């Protein structure tokens, strides 16, 4: 079933998994023309993609080093927003052609688990089922909207579902200038916590402060490095240490963080941006380079170490999603959560966008506009 009157478009293609994301960007990523989109079911909708996020997971997936693998050749773009360009005969009556929509990455796109994995957002069009369509939060731009769900749902899963953060507690957030980290800073403040945020760049940390962090600690060597982290965190917490660590960075900083905690703290394993090549490349399974934490410190500090894989946890327990999604969308509607987008790229610049994300040149989110 083809969608009439829509002109042809273009899409990004990952032809095969790279050895690493660098290798995938260099050798496997290209732009290809597409014919007018075809519907697969009468309830489908064609979305003309206006904004798609360029996320860390999009990069890891391009080398098959993310836990969930798309099937090459595929179109990346986990999260995107656009306008309804065409509705199938049985599509939702609640939206009309021309309406702005946000596509639910759990229902369509490369991170979804059903029949619409092929509908990535780095393309002119995406064909999605009606149930993938969400309203764009009030007053939110499409660039911001495509950076909402993955980031804030992750922050929510980690800080609320796993971390049980309470008002007045102190949370240490690593990778705070990143997409998920900046969302965690905003969410932790909304939950009434005090936030100590870390990063390697004073310029990026200035944005983190503007988004509400109470204290920012630069971990680059000129500013005292990781060696002084414990001392600096202890000075900020009256010698007690933090109640919760949100660790999206991994590696050396994890080890130092185990010395920055109060007895009985919760340690949230969110990711490992500093050691991304944990798993084998080219989609090979196994994790020869996995990070390790010392059991002696975990034991003596009485720590709760909590793994926080948002999508995997939701697949195991689907009841986690509805309250999380409803709360994130409600806060977004109220203007309490606002994704920060620091760079916007055209589809022709997709490799530059991927490099910028991979090299840590982005604060918060990056967007490609097909
Ligand atoms: N648990 C989940 O469900 C879930 C969901 C999404 C993502 N993740 C994971 O969370 C991690 C962060 O994701 P993200 O989307 O926030 O990534 P991101 O936007 O690239 O941010 C990562 C941040 O980590 C910091 N960082 C510190 N040391 C680094 C190093 N050596 N190399 C690169 N970055 C370093 C960087 O901040 P500075 O430059 O300021 O130091 C950067 O802003 C990733 O491992 C990702 O796979 C987990």
Characterization of this structure:
There is one protein chain. This protein is an alpha/beta fold. The protein has helices spanning 21-28, 56-61, 142-145, 149-162, 179-190, 202-210, 229-236, 252-257, 295-300, 310-316, 321-333, 350-358; strands at residues 9-14, 29-34, 44-53, 80-87, 100-103, 125-129, 133-135, 170-174, 194-199, 215-218, 242-247, 261-269, 304-307, 341-346, 365-369. It is globular and about 65 Å long. The site of NADP nicotinamide-adenine-dinucleotide phosphate has 25 residues, from helix 2 and helix 5.
Low-pLDDT runs of 5+ residues are none
Q: Work out the oligomeric state of the chains in this entry.
A: single chain
The succession of helices and strands, N to C, reads EHEEHEEEEHHEHEHEHEHEHEHHEHE
N-end to C-end Cα span: 23 Å
Which fold name corresponds to the CATH topology of the largest domain? Quinone Oxidoreductase, Chain A, domain 1
- What is the tally of beta strands? 15
Q: Please tell me how large the radius of gyration is.
A: 21 Å
Indicate how many domains the architecture comprises. Answer: 2
Query: Helicity level, as a percent range?
Result: 25-40%
Number of helical runs? Answer: 12
The CATH architecture of the largest domain is Alpha-Beta Complex
The CATH superfamily of the largest domain appears as: Medium-chain alcohol dehydrogenases, catalytic domain
- What's the CATH class of the largest domain, please? Alpha Beta
Strand content: 15-25%
- How would you classify the helix and strand content by structural class? alpha/beta
Major sheet summary line:
7 strands, mixed
What would the principal axes of the Cα set say about the shape? Answer: globular
* Distinct bound molecules: NADP nicotinamide-adenine-dinucleotide phosphate
Give the overall pLDDT as a whole number.
97
């Amino acid at each position: 079933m083809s969608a009439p009157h829509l002109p042809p478009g273009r899409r990004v293609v990952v032809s095969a998994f790279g050895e690493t994301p660098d290798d995938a960007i260099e050798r496997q990523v290209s732009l290809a023309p597409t014919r007018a989109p075809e519907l697969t079911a009468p309830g489908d909708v064609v979305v003309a993609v206006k904004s798609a996020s360029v996320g860390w997971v999009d990069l890891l997936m391009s080398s098959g080093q993310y836990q969930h693998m798309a099937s090459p050749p595929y179109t990346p773009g986990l999260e995107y927003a656009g306008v309804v360009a065409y509705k199938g005969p049985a599509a939702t009556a609640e939206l009309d052609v021309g309406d702005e929509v946000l596509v639910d990455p759990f229902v369509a796109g490369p991170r979804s688990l059903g029949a619409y994995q092929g509908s990535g957002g780095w393309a002119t069009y995406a064909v999605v089922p009606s149930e993938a369509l969400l309203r764009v939060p009030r007053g939110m731009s499409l660039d911001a909207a495509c950076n909402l769900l993955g980031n804030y749902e992750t922050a929510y899963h980690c800080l609320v579902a796993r971390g049980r953060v309470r008002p007045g507690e102190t949370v240490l957030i690593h990778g705070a200038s990143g997409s998920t980290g900046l969302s965690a800073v905003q969410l932790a403040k909304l939950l009434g916590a005090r936030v100590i945020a870390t990063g390697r760049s004073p310029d990026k940390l200035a944005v983190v402060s503007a988004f509400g962090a109470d204290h920012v600690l630069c971990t680059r060597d000129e500013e005292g490095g990781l060696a002084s982290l414990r001392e600096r965190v202890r000075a900020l917490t009256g010698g007690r240490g933090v109640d919760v660590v949100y660790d999206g960075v991994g590696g050396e900083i994890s080890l130092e963080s185990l010395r920055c905690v109060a007895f009985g703290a919760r340690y949230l394993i969110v990711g490992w941006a500093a050691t991304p090549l944990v798993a084998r490349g080219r989609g090979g399974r196994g994790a020869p380079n996995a990070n390790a934490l010392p059991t002696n410190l975990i034991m003596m500090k009485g720590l709760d170490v909590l793994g926080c894989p948002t999508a995997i946890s939701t697949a195991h327990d689907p009841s986690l999603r509805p309250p999380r999604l409803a709360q994130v969308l409600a806060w977004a509607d109220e203007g309490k959560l606002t994704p920060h987008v620091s760079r916007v790229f055209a589809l022709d610049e997709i490799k530059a966008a991927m490099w910028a994300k991979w090299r840590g040149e982005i604060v918060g989110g990056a967007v490609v506009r097909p």
